[in-house]
Amino acid sequence: MPDNDNEASAGDAPAAPHMTAAEFRARGREVIDWIAAYMEGLERGDAGRPVLSQITPGDVYRAMPEHAPERSEAWDDILRDVDKVVMPGVTHWQSPDFFAYFPANSSGPAILGDLLASGLGVNGFLWQTCPSITEVETRVLDWLAEMTGLPEAFTSRGNRGPGGGVIQGTASEAALVAMVAARQRAVGDRAVDGLVAYSSSQAHSSVTKAAMVAGIGRDAVRPVAVDAQLSMRPEALEEAIKSDRAAGRTPFFVCATVGTTSTGAVDPLGSIGAVCEREGLWLHVDAAYAGAAMVCPEHRWMIEGVERADSYNFNPHKWLLTNFDCSALWVQDRSALIKALSISPEYLKNAASDAGAVVDYRDWQVPLGRRFRALKLWFVIRHYGVEGLRTHIRSHVRLAELFETLAAADERFEIVAPRRLGLVCFRLKTGDGPTRALMERLNASGDLFLTHSVGPVGPGAESRLFLRMAIGGARTQERHIRAAWDAIRQHADR
Ligand code: PLP
């Protein structure tokens, strides 16, 4: 970054109008101030109104000029348009009244880590291209494995073990990468028809999408039946595998979920793992949401049996105060992953890789390029300490217990599935239509935002529509839960 101005001296090619270091300092302070004021507003509850953006489709697009500016624009104008053009179309994920989907926590240390990563402007596809990207990531994922109770076999042991962790963009990419590693282990590089994968009927759509992207096919994923708790039935899994084998197909991959998206249901890893061992199938565990809670020993019953898994994934970008994107994937044996994804054109060859002395994370993911995402995770873990992260999770679990108690005490509502961690699933006893209408009124009010799902819940296990109250926002406190419940009660009266 130039220090002074952008004047080209005689004979130089004309310079692009770079921001000078002095401008960057001044404008950088303004942007940090803008973010801090936004956070303070969220804290007070005035900046996050309405929580769900109320614009109509096309409003933001139309508010922008039809053509890109030919000449450099003033920063005052650029920043002004953030307020004018962008903010009306922002749904406030960091609002304390955001209860939709699952949380996507943001925090000061994570934002600063991201900023620093951008400031360095590095790309870590090979160890050589930025050794710190690789080595900080390896160490931080070893820490995270230990912090969340994963067996040591998932850690890298400083690149001495066969296992190890890697940061992916999302849980969907983690599922894809695990699936291609499983395919590699099962059939190598051969083109094989009739491969089949299994996940519970409650699994996230990313498992099917992984099969679509991997070319295995949407229909190759078998939805396995669940029990009354919506957990995968290991006997049903075993039967499905047997019947596929009898039909000449090749089972190769099972995805178990710890904390399903709809209701937070938990598949029994121990008995599913035993089936996978008997049948020689790869077991991937999708703990995208619930994995963060494993920092608290009291929740680790959910991952009992994880030592039988080949790969395990959770998203620090959901509930562990690390800004999107940051999805942690561990494998017990990296060789299948590397065999599946490694390709070495001449222009990437270098001495460190050739000597096999280093981790090249490009071989553990789909893209080549990779950002320094470990920096924000490192900052988060050091800023909060493991103890601070436990406090964060426990506060939300306590608030979810409170919400569950309030909803259960109102005879117009029913809780439709066992509460899991920060997720409470409930509905109006009067049925699907009134429940959906209640959600629409609440979200249109702008006071809060929650979402719905449909599933075989309640007596008789028919498919019903229910609301999901997902509590996990960094700023959500008891008063927000009580206010949300008041709003839900009042809107239910209408
Ligand atoms: N798996 C589960 C259980 C989820 O709840 C989600 C998202 O909420 C995903 C996978 C997909 O996550 P991502 O957006 O990181 O791909």
**Heterogens:** pyridoxal-5'-phosphate
Could you list the spans in which at least 5 consecutive residues all have pLDDT below 50?
none
Element order, helices and strands? Answer: HHHHHEHEHEHEHEEHEHHHEEHEEH
Q: What does the overall shape look like?
A: globular
Query: Strands of the largest sheet, in order across it?
Result: 1-7-6-5-4-2-3
Describe this structure in words.
This protein is α/β, with parallel strands linked by helices. Helix content is 40%, strand content 12%. The chain contains 15 helices and eleven strands. The chain has helices at residues 21-44, 59-62, 75-86, 108-120, 131-147, 171-187, 206-213, 234-246, 269-279, 316-319, 334-341, 351-354, 374-408, 432-445, 478-493, and strands at residues 164-168, 195-200, 221-224, 250-257, 282-286, 311-314, 327-331, 413-415, 423-428, 451-456, 463-470. The chain has a seven-stranded mixed beta sheet with strand order 1-7-6-5-4-2-3, with helices on both faces. The chain has a four-stranded antiparallel beta sheet with strand order 8-9-11-10. α6 (171-187) crosses α11, α8 packs parallel to α9 and α13 (374-408) packs across α15 (478-493). The model has no long low-confidence stretch (mean pLDDT 94). Pyridoxal-5'-phosphate (PLP) binds next to α6.
